[in-house]
Write a structure and sequence with these properties.
It is a single chain. By secondary structure, the chain is α+β, with helices and mostly antiparallel strands. The protein has one domain. Helix content is about 15%, strand content about 25%. It has two helices and three strands; from the N terminus they run E-H-E-E-H. The protein is globular.
């Protein structure tokens, strides 16, 4: 869906998506859904991994699970890691 906008394929370490392996990614820009609904906590976590973190909006939907609603969305720039370096520890099953 994002190819027409020049976006790379989406990547995720959640559930079995983790088995697909780390993306080939430059680390220049990432669009990230906050892990928790706590905006300051999400920003602090991302600020340790990226030079620049911008709160771009909030995901809301009337028909999603309550724990998935109101999650912050961030645009992050210039990662201080590669996915190959961190992938083994990013696995998240629930």
């Amino acid at each position: 869906m994002g190819a027409k906008y020049g976006l790379p394929k989406a990547s995720c370490a959640h559930n079995n998506y983790w088995l697909w392996g780390p993306p080939q990614w430059s680390g220049e820009v990432a669009i990230i859904f906050g892990e928790v609904q706590d905006l300051p906590r999400s920003m602090d976590d991302l600020a340790r991994r990226f030079d620049e973190v911008e709160h771009a909006g909030t995901f809301t939907h009337d028909y999603c699970m309550p724990y998935e609603n109101n999650r912050p969305i961030f645009i992050c720039r210039r990662a201080n890691f590669t996915f190959q370096q961190i992938w083994a520890n990013e696995k998240h099953y629930d």
